[in-house]
Structure formats: structure tokens, C-alpha cells
Design a protein that fits this description.
heterodimer; A: alpha/beta; Four Helix Bundle (Hemerythrin (Met), subunit A); Helix Hairpins; Heat Shock Protein 90; 5 domains; five-stranded mixed β-sheet; 28 helices; B: alpha+beta; OB fold (Dihydrolipoamide Acetyltransferase, E2P); six-stranded mixed β-sheet; 11 strands
């Protein structure tokens, strides 16, 4: 059974590939009906599918393809000219074939689809009866099959065998009988001819020739010997399939050197590459650190070289693996010529489709997602864009409308552009319609630019068609386009001119697994925003933000941009004091824009998207996570969801929540806590000795970083800090600046204790937020009194 | 130091002796403390036990989900069992550990106050969960009775189940 499944899978993959190509070829055939090469190609497809399906016991499919083959074979031999009417029937049969294949894919059986009507029509054609393609009776079908068989006996042996599949056991036997007789007669004739030629025919050499006959006869005879009726069929099929497949394979047309690989394996490979990219990022970070610390050392250069080679190779590897997942967009484009053909017949319009850049490659997952949106856009162009031939002539345009579908690379994105030379979008009309349907308010309509008006076509429920046709007008399609493109992190850009045409650009990222991201900081957290959604970043000061109806907005050139603070969306605790300036990341998605306020911009980085797993999936606004160079996890912003969330997020009042912790009542001397930050153990001990008599609690830190860590841990409520200026890792000035960023430490007295005495040092101390400046050496009493003054030490504890 | 070591070895030896020969009847658990209680999970459900390190907060989750952390390239959720069990938050200290548990494809790290030890316990010494907490919703698998104490055994699949 497993083996069968495997064969079935291969069959389906092959068939779908063939059918896809078939569609395109057939439409081309209509314009060049006498192209023998093309006809042969199409014939081969029908033939291959027939052969394989008969082997796999899909009788309905075999039946259908067999009759298709008949028609095509006639056309191939010049007995039949392909007219549009005939083409309609052929296309119909191909649709049926597709439906059957899909059915097989889903249910592993081809039952339940009625092909009789179509087969009858095919038969009529192959009989040369072109008058009205109504239902033909069964007799006709049988009649059609009979002469066909005889015709082919002469030409291709394998076809004659394939016909067997359409007959029941009795018929097969009759057929075999007939063939045997025929062969024997032929042999007889040959022998007689030989005799006639005067050659002596000895009895001995005659034996082998008979043997040969027997050998050949054995194959057709086999069914007779087998008792069960099912068995002969199978045997016949086993013979048929390799032969049937052979002609298709041996064709000299461009044979690609390819192997089929399970997508899962590629996904796994992609995951591994992802890990490698993360490791590379980490290596680069470490290299930077080492460079800083051991500047000028000789080994640095070597390390540098290795790191850059590793990073180069990793990047190449990543691109190479990405390429293996790439498929040409042509795979999607292929189905459109057929669609346009059908649509133009249905709508009574003349439309030509021009394809360009089919070779442009996209990630497999994206190629799969992009088909539907394109169908909707093209349908829309046909229905609403291109005018009827009469209208076009009246406007002085060529009768035939043109839709251009092209794909090309633009930086890290693929652009798929759909242009039509139809009537274009009328912004006023769009607004009117939207007002009618209550999609927008009058106020919105007034303030809307033309470009914004174009985007109205993507609103759910919107439709400009006066009447609902089978093609469009339900107001669903374009909404799907927008959601699907947004899902791919893509953008849509529309340009249009009345009576000249409409141009739609879909900008889609190359791949989904590894993306370029902008890293932003808010308070102490970092978030990654997919760069594809970032239009620009702006630095603004606080007073450029206006509040309108509880929402923040800013003026960006001519536009008003609504703003939302990333901290409000992700419930970030405001520990750090917000600075005067902020950055606005302008996000663009499809056609809507939003300004995201962040505290800092960290930079651009290549990140690997990882899922948050089942436990945390579906968190609003988070698309996933990535691992950064330092091994930490950074969350990736889901821009689509974020835009949605922004609508419901009100500005949070930046409350001065600095409920000073120092307000705790002091009941004894040890309630006072003081931190001593100095890299010298001796100095720390001197300070400790000076302060111990007061009875206060003392905490020591050896440098700025350690001090910060202790502060952050929040185990103690410090009343003052004594800070040395010159320390490794983080000096006193930096420490003071860092501490002052925290709201809760805003009023914590910082006392510099240093041997630096110059005025500029003092100035820097003040700038960084130090309140006192004690120069070494100092007396214990002096230190103690300064501390007492600053912590408001209660005299009674002394 | 060596005394302490000896003590531990003796203790372990004693425990081993108490283990019955038929291993089938024995369940191996890892015990840990949250608050004042000792809990245990089957040793096979534990992928690893690690010392605490930094994690990243995730918005819009209950307070007991601390966030996510990086375990050798995988992003794994981190759940504080103290908070999940409704206890007050406590600073992580040097006894704090992350226990990474796995059930099928679900993996998560759990913050616990302190590890106790690996426990071998006879199946017959495991009682059902108290009636009051019975039902499908309980995360208590049973109660293990030991000489001097009882241990609550937790269901790993329930711990790893998303309840929000």
C-alpha cells in the first residue's frame, strides 16, 4: 500500500505540473493552430496522464484522457483544425481532468465526477461532427473508439494496448483474438512472400521465427491465463505505463537537471541556516568586544579575517539555501492566459495579457500565497478596468484592451505589477460609493486624498460594479487581496488615471524565514520591526506631538500621522525617565500608515524568525521572536496586528509615578542604606571605616556595572551613593547618568569621591547629576558629615 | 566537606536500599520546593534543570508567564510556579532553578524556589489526589507518601497547558 501511495504521489506531482503547462500551451495553440510542435507537446501530456492513470486504476480519468487524446491525435495529424469552439470543449475536458486529479489527491479515488457529457462532445469532434456540441449518445462514443483502435494498430503499438483499459474482460479477449489472427495472417503472408521470393524455407529455421511470434503473443495472451478479471487488467497496465511515459521523457525539449526534494527537508535546512546566522551575529558581536579590549594586538587581525570569512560564507550559504526554495513566479502566471481568455469570452471584451519577468523567483511559500490575490486583481481589471470594445473605440483606444502582468526585483523585495489600459479609478466616484455604503463618513471623504480614495477598493463590502456578475461585484475579492498581501508583510501601491489605466504594485519580501528588521528600544526592552513595513524614521521633540480626541498625532510634511507609543501597546513599565526627544518609526502597510513612538533606535539587523511555540502563540501584536547576537530573545512586532491595536490604544498619561521609596520612615540608624562604589578595596575600606560609626547599612560595589546591577535588583532602598570617578568597565560619570535615567532614583543623592580635582572634572560631575564632590584625601569626619547632610540623617541616632 | 559528602552518600544508599527490587513498581520523581510545599514531577518529563538566566518579557500574558528565554537556539516560555500557584513573588536567589519540562512537543521552563532531590517511590505509596481537587482540571496527579512527609505530584501535561 505504501508503495502505491508513493507512486500515487509521484503521479499527482507530475500530472499537476503537466496540466499547468497544458493550460498555457492550449491558449497559445488557439492563436497558432498549425504549430505541430505545440500540438505534439499537448498530445503527449494527455497521453502521459492517461497511461499513468490507467496503471493506477483511475478508470474515469483514463476514460476522459483517452477521448481527449483522440481529438488531439486527429489535430496532430492534420485531420482536424482547432477552432475556438473545439478549444472550448478541450479546455472543458482539461478542467474536468484537473477536477479529477484534485479529487484523487484528496480522496485517492476518482469516483463521483461525471465525465460522460464531455466525453460525448469530444467524440463528436473526433468524428468530425461539429454541428452543435450537445450531448451525444453512448453509441457514438463506442463507434468512435472502434475505428480509432484499428487506425492506431499500424502506428503505435502502445496505444493499442492502452485501449484495453476501456473494455471489459470479454472485449479484451475478443480483441486479443483478433490481434492474434491478424498477426498470424501477417506471418503467413511474410512466409509466403519469402517462399515466393524463391528462398528455400527449411523446417529448422522456421522454428525460431515461430518462437518469436509466441513470445510476442504471450503478452497479449497473458490475460487469458489469469483467472481473476482484475488481474489481467493490471498486467496490461504494467506494460502500458512505462511505454506510455517513455515518449514524454525522451523528448529533446529542454531537460532540466533536477531532483525532487521534500519541502520538509528544505525547511529543516533553512532552520539550521537560521541557527548559523544567529551564531554569526553573535560572533560578530564578540569580535567587536574583543577588538575594543585588545586594541592593537596582533591576533586581532587574524580573528578579524576569520570572522569576516565566516560571515561571508554564512551569508552566501543562506542565499544559496534560500534559492533552493525559490520558484519562478511563472508558476503562478501560467494560469492567467487561460483565465483572461475565459473572462474575455464571458464578458464579451477583447483583452490581451502580456506577461513579463516570469523568471523572477520567489520563496515557495510566497508563491503559494500570491495566486489568489492576483486572480482577484486580474478579474477586477477585466471586469471593471477594461471597457467593452465599443466604449474603447469611442474613446479612441484600440479595441483590444491590454493587461500587463510583470514581476521584477527591487532591492530586497519582489514587485509584481499589474497594469491595465482601462478606464482607471475615479476617486470621486469611489468616495461617493463608499459614502453610499457607509464605509466612510462624509468628513473622511472630504479629507481624503486621491491615493487614499483608491485604497477604498480594498475595504470589505466595497464594490463599484453596478450589478453583481459572476466575475465580480460582491465586494469580497479585493479585501482578500489586502489581507493576503499583508500576511506576507507586503505592500500595495495603486496609481491610476481616468481613461488611461490603473497600475497596481504588490511589493513582497523575498522570503519569510529570515528578514531584515529595525531594532528599537523602549525603556529597557527591545523590539524588532520588519524592515519591509518601515517607511522612514523621524526624530521629534515632545512638543511636536499633538493630541486630538485622545489620540496622538503629528505633522509629517503635508500629512497628519497618527501616533502610538510602543510602550502603551506592549504595556511597558515606565522605569526610565523619558527624554525630551523620541523617535517615530513610520510604519506602512498596504496603504495605511502609522507612527510608532519609540525611545531609541538600535539599528538594522538580519533576524531569524522563530515561533513562540504553542504555549504563547497568538499574542496580539507579536509575530514571533528572534535570538540576538548576545543570546537574548527579542520579540518581533506583528505590524498588521499592531495597526489594529493602535486604534484601540489611548494615550496613557505619563504619570509621575515616582512614589519615592525613600519616604519610608526611618526608625533606627541602620534603616539608612548607603552604597559605596569604588574599584579600590582600600578606598572602600576607608569609606566604610568613616561611615560605620554612624550605624548605617553599607553596601559595596567594585565598579559602575556592579552598582547598577545592585540598584536594579532592588533589594535595598538606597539613601545615598558614594561614587569614585575612575573605575574599570563603567566610570562614575556614566554610572551617574545611567542612574538618573530611572524615575525612582531621580532624587537619590550621588556623591563623587575622587582624586580628580580640576574644575572641568567637577563640571562633568554636576552635569552627570552628582550633588557633592569630595576630593581625596578627605577626613573621616568630613565624609560622614557630607553623607549625613545628604541623607537627612536624624540627629537622635548619633 | 567530606563528612557532608559521606552523609549524602549514606542517605542515598539508604534510599537505594529501601527501593524494592521490582523496578516496575517504582516511580522516579524530581522533588522541588515552591513556597513551603514540596512538589514533584516524573523525572522523564524533565528535559533539563538549569540555573536562572535572563529572559524577555512578553506582553499581554498573565503575570505568572514571565516571558521567553533562549535555550540553545529555541525560544521557550518561562513560567513562575510561585505566581501560578498564587503565592507572592520572591526574588530569585542562588537556589532558584529553571526546570525545563517536556510533554510531547510542548516545552516550557518553570521557575522553582529550590530543588530537593530525585525520589524513588513505590507506586503503592502514591495516593490519589484529595477528593476536593479531583476532576479533570486538577494539575495534581497524586500524593506521594514518604516516611516523614508527603509530596504533591504534578501533572506535566497540565502544567504545560495554556490556560489563558
Amino acid at each position: 500500500m505504501d508503495e502505491f501511495q508513493e507512486i500515487l504521489q509521484d503521479f499527482l506531482v507530475e500530472s499537476f505540473e503537466l496540466v499547468e503547462k497544458l493550460d498555457e500551451d492550449l491558449v497559445e495553440l488557439e492563436s497558432r493552430p498549425d504549430d505541430l510542435e505545440l500540438l505534439n507537446g499537448i498530445f503527449r501530456v494527455a497521453h502521459t496522464v492517461k497511461g499513468a492513470s490507467s496503471f493506477l486504476n483511475f478508470d474515469t480519468l483514463t476514460h476522459l484522457t483517452h477521448h481527449m487524446e483522440d481529438v488531439l491525435n486527429k489535430a496532430r495529424h492534420g485531420d482536424l483544425l482547432i477552432t475556438p469552439d473545439i478549444m472550448d470543449v478541450i479546455l472543458e475536458s482539461i478542467d474536468l481532468m484537473k477536477a479529477l486529479l484534485e479529487k484523487i489527491r484528496d480522496t485517492s479515488s476518482d469516483d463521483g465526477i461525471d465525465v460522460a457529457a464531455c466525453v460525448a462532445r469530444l467524440d463528436k469532434i473526433s468524428n468530425g461532427d461539429l454541428s452543435g456540441l450537445a450531448d451525444a449518445d453512448k453509441a457514438l462514443a463506442d463507434a468512435a473508439a472502434e475505428p480509432e483502435v484499428e487506425e492506431k494498430v499500424e502506428e503505435e503499438a502502445e496505444e493499442e494496448e492502452l485501449d484495453l483499459e476501456n473494455m471489459d474482460a470479454d472485449e479484451i479477449e475478443a480483441e486479443i483474438e483478433r490481434l492474434l489472427n491478424q498477426r498470424q495472417e501477417e506471418d503467413k503472408a511474410k512466409r509466403q512472400a519469402k517462399i515466393a521470393a524463391g528462398e528455400e524455407v527449411p523446417s529448422m529455421p522456421d522454428e525460431p521465427s515461430e518462437d518469436e511470434d509466441k513470445k510476442e503473443d504471450k503478452e497479449p495472451q497473458a490475460p487469458k491465463k489469469a483467472p481473476a478479471p482484475a488481474a489481467p487488467k493490471k498486467e496490461a497496465k504494467e506494460k502500458a505505463s512505462p511505454r506510455a511515459a517513455a515518449p514524454a521523457r525522451s523528448t529533446p525539449t529542454t531537460v532540466e537537471q533536477t531532483i525532487r526534494v521534500d519541502v520538509k527537508r528544505l525547511d529543516h535546512l533553512m532552520n539550521l541556516i537560521g541557527e548559523l546566522v544567529l551564531a554569526k551575529n553573535r560572533l560578530i558581536k564578540i569580535n567587536d568586544d574583543v577588538e575594543e579590549r585588545y586594541e592593537g594586538e596582533e591576533f586581532l587581525e587574524e580573528l578579524n579575517q576569520v570572522v569576516s570569512i565566516v560571515s561571508l560564507v554564512t551569508t552566501d550559504l543562506q542565499i544559496a539555501v534560500m534559492k533552493t526554495r525559490m520558484l519562478p513566479v511563472g508558476k503562478v502566471f501560467n494560469k492567467f492566459p487561460r483565465m483572461i481568455r475565459d473572462l474575455s469570452r464571458e464578458l464579451n471584451k477583447k483583452i490581451e495579457l502580456v506577461l513579463a519577468g516570469e523568471d523572477t523567483e520567489l520563496d515557495k511559500s510566497i508563491v503559494e500565497e500570491i495566486g489568489d490575490p492576483l486572480v482577484h486583481i486580474i478579474r477586477n481589471s477585466c471586469d471593471h478596468g477594461i471597457e467593452t470594445p465599443e466604449e474603447r473605440l469611442a474613446k479612441g483606444k484600440p479595441e483590444e484592451g491590454t493587461i500587463t502582468l510583470k514581476a521584477y526585483n527591487e532591492g530586497n523585495q519582489i514587485v509584481i505589477q499589474i497594469d491595465d489600459d482601462g478606464k482607471g479609478l475615479d476617486p470621486e466616484m469611489l468616495k461617493e460609493k463608499s459614502l453610499e455604503k457607509g464605509i466612510i463618513t462624509e468628513k473622511e471623504a472630504e479629507s481624503m486624498s486621491d491615493k487614499e480614495a483608491y485604497t477604498l477598493i480594498f475595504r470589505p463590502g466595497f464594490s463599484t460594479a453596478a450589478a453583481v456578475t459572476s466575475v465580480s461585484g460582491r465586494g469580497v475579492g479585493m479585501d482578500v487581496v489586502k489581507t493576503n498581501i499583508e500576511k506576507l508583510n507586503g505592500m500595495i501601491d495603486i496609481e491610476s488615471e481616468i481613461n488611461v489605466g490603473t497600475s497596481m504594485k504588490l511589493k513582497i519580501p523575498l522570503t519569510l524565514a529570515i528578514i531584515q528588521a529595525l531594532l528599537v528600544g523602549v525603556q529597557e526592552e527591545h523590539y524588532a520591526i520588519p524592515l519591509a513595513s518601515v517607511l522612514e524614521t523621524v526624530r521629534i521633540s515632545k512638543d511636536e506631538i499633538y493630541t486630538v480626541e485622545g489620540r496622538s498625532v503629528m505633522r509629517l510634511r503635508e500629512d497628519v500621522l497618527s501616533l502610538v507609543h510602543i510602550g502603551d501597546i506592549f504595556e511597558v513599565e515606565r522605569i526610565l525617565d523619558a527624554s525630551e526627544h523620541a523617535y517615530v518609526v513610520v510604519l506602512g502597510l498596504g496603504t495605511s500608515k502609522l507612527g510608532l513612538i519609540v525611545d531609541t533606535l538600535v539599528g538594522q539587523e538580519e533576524i531569524v524568525i522563530k515561533s513562540l511555540g504553542d504555549y504563547l502563540k497568538g499574542i496580539d501584536g507579536i509575530a514571533g521572536a528572534t535570538i540576538r547576537g548576545d543570546g537574548g530573545v527579542t520579540l518581533i512586532v506583528d505590524v498588521v496586528a499592531l495597526m489594529q491595536m493602535a486604534k484601540d490604544t489611548k494615550v496613557s498619561q505619563v504619570s509621575a509615578e515616582a512614589t519615592a521609596t525613600s519616604s519610608n520612615e526611618k526608625t533606627k540608624a541602620s534603616d539608612y542604606t548607603i552604597m559605596i562604589v569604588d574599584d579600590s578595596k582600600t578606598d572602600r575600606t576607608i569609606m566604610r571605616k568613616a561611615l560605620e560609626p554612624m550605624g548605617v547599612t553599607l553596601v559595596e560595589a567594585a565598579d559602575g556595572q556592579e552598582a547598577l546591577k545592585i540598584l536594579k535588583a532592588g533589594d535595598h532602598n538606597f539613601d545615598a551613593m558614594l561614587i569614585d570617578i575612575e573605575m574599570p568597565r563603567m566610570d562614575g560619570y556614566t554610572l551617574a547618568t545611567e542612574i538618573k535615567k530611572y524615575n525612582r532614583y531621580k532624587h537619590l543623592p550621588l556623591i563623587a569621591v575622587t582624586s580628580r580635582t580640576s574644575k572641568s572634572d567637577r563640571m562633568r560631575g554636576v552635569e552627570s547629576g552628582m550633588v557633592e564632590y569630595i576630593t581625596k584625601p578627605y577626613s573621616a569626619d568630613y565624609l560622614s558629615s557630607v553623607v549625613q547632610r545628604n541623607v537627612k540623617f536624624k540627629a537622635e541616632f548619633l | 566537606m567530606s563528612d557532608k559528602l559521606k552523609e549524602i552518600i549514606n542517605k542515598q544508599g539508604a534510599q537505594q536500599e529501601s527501593v524494592v527490587d521490582q523496578l516496575d513498581d517504582v516511580v522516579q520523581l524530581v522533588g522541588f520546593i515552591i513556597g513551603d510545599e514540596e512538589y514533584a514531577v516524573p523525572i522523564l518529563a524533565i528535559q533539563e534543570i538549569i540555573k536562572p538566566f535572563s529572559w524577555t518579557r512578553v506582553p499581554q500574558v498573565p503575570n505568572y508567564v514571565l516571558g521567553v528565554f533562549n535555550l540553545r537556539g529555541s525560544v521557550i516560555p518561562l513560567i513562575d510556579l510561585r505566581l501560578k500557584f498564587g503565592l507572592t513573588p520572591k526574588k530569585q536567589n542562588e537556589d532558584t532553578r529553571f526546570i525545563v519540562m517536556r510533554h510531547g512537543d510542548d516545552v516550557a521552563g518553570f521557575v522553582i524556589d529550590r530543588l530537593t532531590m530525585a525520589i524513588r517511590i513505590k507506586k503503592e505509596n502514591i495516593g490519589a489526589a484529595p477528593d476536593t481537587v479531583n476532576g479533570d482540571d486538577t494539575i495534581i496527579d497524586g500524593v506521594g507518601k514518604q516516611a516523614d512527609k508527603i509530596i504533591t505530584i504534578l501533572k506535566v501535561n497540565k502544567l504545560l497547558e495554556r490556560t489563558f
